[in-house]
């Protein structure tokens, strides 16, 4: 008699597989490809390309956020490491970004002096609170909430924010020593530092040319380095020129910003919500490109967790909120990065800068940093976006346009623009749900059921009202359907039967069940019946639990063809 194989090996294999899946869930970096010489060679060059962009952009975006310049390098190190280790999207360029930096700088205006200890503490709290919110959303698997922000709202906000960034950088780029108001009151060329303007405009021209000539080349670090050498050679800092100045060397130290007062918490609440939203939408746009290219599925909840942890770590290093940069992520992919190993090489370069090379940035003119920001932001300005949207949907184009103008009008509290866009978009969505498409159908010569009035078709039967509603039968649409039937029956007393072609109805709630009962009662009051064709199983199950599929006054058909054949006899 053959022996029965023991189930123990298969059970052991199952436990091992579950343990490995659990381990990869909590420690995603364990699933990275095992490094070999060929992989590491490609990852090294991709990492160097991104790392050489990351340092000058980090310093420039710190200036945009009103933070000490070295915090831009801090935000490029620890948060990027945390994000790549725990993210499902390992090839994103995580660190400071222009939009997030602008939001931070604009939100804190009036609350503290830029660059002061109070400002740094508030920016750190913004990073911590935003990170905790993202972490909570990811753990609760609420990544779907990102779908509330539509493309028109995001485009309108992005275009306005890009213009605000450009406006904020013009004084430094042109070497303006005073305010625009003072310049308009007493116009004079002496208000400008010609050397700073030459550095800024020259660097901007070189950056733009380099981007057109070779987009994937890390031109920023070369241009910044050459500008620093030229500044040192002419003694620009010695003549009171605006330069980066001394940056502390060494790793970031653990930082606790102190407890927030309730008034400060209230002032930060709305900015934190918008920073969370905008920064993760930046991440989403880059992550979708990465996963489409790799043929993998994007796990938005895991990325919410990873980038939430990254923001918290940034705040605890005394830095500001981070995000995924679309430009650096695109260059990482363009340079051939295959995994998170490329990011680790980029971070090794940032670490080397922090440990040994920060003195090399001393003589870099601040106008050059402004040029780096302007060159990066010009790619966000796309005037044709709203015009193209107008051809597709005028309502959504108006929502995008209003978001754009309100973002500009409410600056520096520019977060009101995106919040107003969200409210308008949700209002438009609710209006559409409250006014579903309900048509009276007739039989088209091609055999399909179409809008009877649009196609000038005869009714299916003389004493029949045949309707189709292209929406769910729920609290939002039930009143519109009931009103349509009641108005028609009141205007046409000869109509006795009502037929609902229910194939488009995927779901029904309690309000819909009550509406269904009233439709049935109205048809019976006319001396006829309610006919329903193509009812889907989820709807049928709910109605059956409500006891509405039994008794007289209701006729059900599985298919529209069956309904058409029966109605011709029933209603003649």
Q: Which geometry do the CA atoms define?
A: elongated
Q: Can you give the mean pLDDT?
A: 89
Oligomeric status: single chain
Main sheet characteristics:
6 strands, mixed
Q: Can you list the strand order of the major beta sheet?
A: 4-3-5-6-7-8
Order of helices and strands: HHHHEHHHHHHHHEHHHHHHEEEHEHEHEH
| Poorly predicted spans | none
For the record, give the distance between the C-alpha atoms at the N and C termini, rounded to a whole number.
74 Å
Topology (elements, then pairings):
Elements: H1 8-26, H2 37-64, H3 70-74, H4 78-86, E1 93-95, H5 98-108, H6 117-139, H7 151-174, H8 180-185, H9 194-213, H10 219-234, H11 262-294, H12 300-315, E2 323-325, H13 326-334, H14 341-357, H15 366-377, H16 384-392, H17 394-409, H18 415-434, E3 438-443, E4 449-451, E5 464-469, H19 478-491, E6 497-501, H20 510-525, E7 530-533, H21 537-545, E8 554-557, H22 560-570
Parallel strand pairs: 5-6, 6-7, 7-8
Antiparallel strand pairs: 1-2, 3-4, 3-5
Helix pairs in contact: 2-10, 2-13, 2-14, 2-15, 4-12, 5-11, 6-11, 6-12, 7-15, 7-17, 7-18, 9-10, 9-15, 11-13, 11-18, 16-17, 17-18, 19-20
Written description of the protein model:
It is a single chain. This protein is mainly α and 572 residues long. The chain is built from 22 helices and 8 strands. It has helices spanning 8-26, 37-64, 70-74, 78-86, 98-108, 117-139, 151-174, 180-185, 194-213, 219-234, 262-294, 300-315, 326-334, 341-357, 366-377, 384-392, 394-409, 415-434, 478-491, 510-525, 537-545, 560-570; strands spanning 93-95, 323-325, 438-443, 449-451, 464-469, 497-501, 530-533, 554-557. The strands form 2 sheets. A 6-stranded mixed β-sheet has the order 4-3-5-6-7-8. Strands 1-2 form a two-stranded antiparallel sheet. Helix 4 runs antiparallel to helix 12. The chain is elongated, with a radius of gyration of 31 Å. 45% of the residues are buried. The mean pLDDT is 89.
